[in-house]
């Protein structure tokens, strides 16, 4: 069991735990001090490990190793929008990592400061798109994009993607067990296919990017995502089948009033912004952008439409 004051020894140094920052089902994150300053230490949750069946324990350990492997393989310039790995090793026989310590996650920031303006929403979406491009280029599907997994660097005002334990290799079979967070998932990631498996690819991450953009611009989650989250909270993985029966199929990913509110947030660029959102939130993966460059072009079109009135006024 770890607690405040515990010393974690990794490959490059020692870290004294100071404050628990949070965590997930299998991971715990602590603020820690070292000779080089403050860091975030990510550990496997031993309490949850003791309660989990052996197959799930193995999955959590494999996920931690996969996260370390991904982060350690990044080039220094990749750290612009992805959290940096500073050190790694093991503690009590389980994987452990030291990561750069950032201020707070995007969910906490927006809760405190309010909904950002449309330009900020576009800038952050572009930054996340760049981070996803690195993840995909490295051969992974991220599969858990949400505000809580985006950390804000207040020095630069930029976002960094964190928590890669849910990621799945692209070279593996596209089908896999349930992974991610229901509120932000694409239909193919929430509603299983044959044998209860889920079929995902990078375009599943692009759907979550669209859900994030809507949340940033409108200050609330999509009703589609809220419905999935409610079904999962009430019934677990069986919630997808129950929701499908109640709705007579997969619910619409974007309601007309939601589309109107989003377009209104972008003023004269509403048409271009709507084209971007509808592309990202297309129910079928084949209708979504094929790669990050296509998303960048759609983002540029929105920015250009927003700047056009200013150029005419000048």
Features:
314 residues; alpha+beta; Phosphorylase Kinase, domain 1; Transferase(Phosphotransferase), domain 1; 2 domains; six-stranded antiparallel beta sheet; three-stranded antiparallel beta sheet; 13 strands; 44% helix; 19% strand; globular
Radius of gyration: 20 Å
Structural class: alpha+beta
Write down the overall geometry. globular
Mean pLDDT: 93
Helix tally equals 11
**Strand elements, count:** 13
* Helix share bin: 40-55%
Element order: H for helix, E for strand: EEEEHHEEEHHEEEEEHEHHHHHH
Which fold does the CATH topology of the largest domain refer to?
Answer: Transferase(Phosphotransferase), domain 1
Give the DSSP E fraction (strand runs of 2 or more residues). Answer: 15-25%
Strand order of the largest sheet: 1-2-3-4-6-5
**CATH homologous superfamily of the largest domain?**
Transferase(Phosphotransferase) domain 1
Low-confidence stretches at least 5 residues in length (pLDDT < 50)? none
Please write the CATH class name of the largest domain. Mainly Alpha
Question: What is the first-to-last residue Cα distance?
Answer: 64 Å
User: What's the number of structural domains?
Assistant: 2
- Biggest sheet features: 6 strands, antiparallel
Q: In CATH terms, what is the architecture of the largest domain?
A: Orthogonal Bundle
């Amino acid at each position: 069991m770890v607690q405040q004051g515990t010393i974690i020894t990794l490959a490059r140094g020692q870290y004294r735990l100071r404050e628990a920052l949070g965590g997930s089902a299998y991971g715990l994150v602590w603020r820690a001090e070292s000779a080089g300053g403050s860091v975030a230490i990510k550990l496997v949750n031993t309490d949850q490990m003791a309660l989990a069946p052996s197959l799930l324990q193995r999955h959590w350990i494999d996920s931690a190793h996969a996260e370390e492997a991904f982060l350690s393989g990044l080039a220094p310039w990749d750290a612009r929008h992805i959290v940096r790995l500073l050190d790694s090793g093991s503690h009590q026989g389980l994987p452990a990592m030291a990561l750069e310590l950032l201020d707070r996650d995007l969910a906490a920031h927006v809760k405190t400061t309010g909904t950002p303006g449309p330009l900020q929403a576009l800038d952050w979406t572009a930054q996340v798109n760049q981070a996803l491009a690195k993840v995909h280029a490295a051969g992974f599907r991220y599969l858990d994009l949400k505000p809580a997994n985006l950390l804000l660097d207040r020095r630069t005002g930029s976002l960094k993607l964190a928590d890669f334990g849910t990621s799945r290799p692209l070279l593996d079979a596209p089908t896999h067990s349930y992974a991610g967070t229901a509120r932000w998932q694409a239909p193919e990631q929430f509603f299983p296919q044959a044998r209860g498996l889920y079929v995902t690819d990078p375009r599943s991450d692009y759907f979550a990017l669209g859900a994030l953009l809507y949340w940033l611009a409108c200050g609330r989650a999509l009703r589609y995502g809220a419905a999935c989250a409610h079904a999962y909270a009430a019934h677990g993985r069986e919630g997808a089948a129950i929701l499908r029966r109640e709705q007579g199929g997969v619910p619409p990913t974007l309601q007309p009033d939601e589309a109107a509110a989003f377009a209104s947030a972008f003023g004269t660029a509403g048409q271009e912004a709507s084209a971007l959102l509808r592309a990202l939130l297309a129910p079928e993966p084949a209708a979504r952008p094929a790669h990050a460059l296509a998303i960048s072009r759609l983002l540029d079109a929105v920015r250009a439409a927003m700047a056009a009135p200013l150029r005419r006024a000048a």
